[in-house]
């Protein structure tokens, strides 16, 4: 078990890069590794983590995950605060607005939902 921790620590330490190393010409090599091998680095200044270098694809994935989490939290909050006595069933909404289920099915085929 301790062997696993040593490997993880070694991997972690290999991902630390100082601001001085970046300014000494290592930036292009690091960026190449990030783009090609999807590696990640932690930039350290005065022995403190200050920034992270990740690929643009990973950054976009993180932003999307953050947005998904925020939407989930909003939905949970709305459900928690909703009054089920005022809820209207799906069937009642269709009837009220004279919408046929088949029309919804056609729209669902035409619209792309992520």
TrEMBL record:
Belongs to the phD/YefM antitoxin family. This is Antitoxin. Antitoxin component of a type II toxin-antitoxin (TA) system. InterPro entries: Antitoxin_Phd/YefM, YefM-like_sf. It comes from the Bacteria. It holds the Pfam family PhdYeFM_antitox. Signal peptide: none annotated. It comes from Caloramator australicus RC3.
């Amino acid at each position: 078990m301790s062997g696993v921790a040593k490997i993880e620590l070694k991997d972690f330490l290999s991902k630390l890069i100082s601001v001085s190393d970046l300014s000494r010409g290592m930036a292009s090599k690091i960026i190449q590794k990030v783009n090609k091998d999807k590696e990640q680095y932690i930039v350290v200044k005065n022995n403190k983590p200050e920034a992270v270098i990740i690929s643009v694809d990973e950054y976009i994935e993180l932003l999307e995950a953050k947005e998904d989490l925020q939407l989930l939290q909003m939905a949970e909050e709305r459900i928690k605060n909703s009054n089920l006595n005022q809820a209207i069933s799906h069937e009642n909404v269709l009837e009220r607005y004279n919408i046929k289920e088949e029309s919804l099915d056609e729209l669902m085929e035409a619209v792309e939902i992520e």
